[in-house]
């Protein structure tokens, strides 16, 4: 019984060691693969694109409204200038 | 007069053994915990009811021919139910947080120390008279430390079917007790300054990455650890259905209707294993104690690993998230978030804790595969 127990304990210690090493190795390899995969397929992905697509029209819109304001301001100034110089 | 005697002999009252009465009250206790305390009600309710049904004298619901007997035989003896649950969990899991920060896998690995350390503890218990755990029994008990119900049931059904009832009840009870067990350990191992660390926001993850991820996990599992492919394979199938975007109907079924149906039968089948002769033993007490130890060691080693990573990264990682490395999705991540908020009310760690949390699911499936490969029953 005593002998049996100590052999079981050795086996359990062995499992503890092997188990932790294998778990770390397995997930370590996975870390490496995820990084590799992200480099390969991640960069040209739709996530940044989907950020860009809504951005462009909104920036254009804000540009055009800004343009309108600028145009309005200039034309107002020109109008004022002409009125003053009549 | 003879008729009355015969009828009396056929009543439950005349046939009760006191052990069955105790087990029926255990069943009612589980029902109470599920309904009033909301401890994992989706599972403890069918388990508790199954425990009541299986201990009814004469009816023999768990004897060959009884309904619970067949539910157990079809679903758990074959390993089908836990695997279907795993597919549903896969369909519910978003790996985005992990893909954005793959280092979190190390935390999921570290937390598995609870499993293997408990294996050692279970064998040590044999020193106490009354305990006689084989290595297979010890492995099945140790997996409670993985804090993952379906994995625990799957492994127990393979390695130690006799202990399945106690192991499943212990696994689900401790998962429900995560908010009570984890915070003291987390606070004891970290200081206030570490708990206040704010982490950088995660990058967005593309759909392509999310589709490739489950296929990649499956590939390296089948290459390195085929014993883990039942669990990991079903998990990846569910996750692929979720992320690929073309089978929304299947994905919805896997994460709603199918998992609900299976949960009912899984609970009943586990409950059917709570018969008096199998449950009322010292070994059950040992299993409950070992489960708590497994859980605590897993939490502690996750936090210690996170502390190490925090030091190495120059204080960019909040060590609290290591506690989420024991799966128990998403409860462990919520606990991390809550403990973090206690120290810094503007620090939301939930998304950061989801990474180690889902890594823990993979980690415990891998650990289960290792135990299956190395410990033949």
Overall description:
The complex is a heterodimer of chains A (86) and B (377). Chain A has 86 residues and is mainly α. Chain A has helices spanning 2-42, 46-84. In chain A, 14% of the residues are buried. Residues 44-61 of chain A have low confidence and may be disordered. In chain B, 72% of the residues lie in helices and 0% in strands. The N and C termini of chain B lie far apart (54 Å). The relative contact order of chain B is 0.19. The model of chain B has no long low-confidence stretch (mean pLDDT 93). The interface between A and B is large, with 32 and 46 residues. Chain A: Belongs to the OadG family.
Features:
heterodimer, A: mainly alpha, B: mainly alpha, 0% strand, globular
Summarize the structure.
Chain B: This is Oxaloacetate decarboxylase beta chain. The complex is a heterodimer of chains A (86) and B (377). Helices cover 93% and strands 0% of the residues of chain A.
Please compute the radius of gyration of chain A using only Cα atoms.
35 Å
Helix content of chain A: over 70%
Oligomer: heterodimer
Poorly predicted regions of chain A: 44-61
> What summary fits the major beta sheet of chain A?
none
Query: What spatial form of chain B do the alpha-carbon principal axes imply?
Result: globular
Compute the number of strand runs of chain A: 0
Main sheet: strands, sense, barrel of chain B: none
Structural class assignment of chain B = mainly alpha
End-to-end Cα distance of chain B, whole Å, is: 54 Å
Q: Which runs of chain B of at least 5 residues are low in confidence (pLDDT < 50)?
A: none
Subcellular location (chain B): Cell membrane
Membrane topology (chain B): Multi-pass membrane protein
Main location (chain B): membrane
EC number (chain B): 7.2.4.2
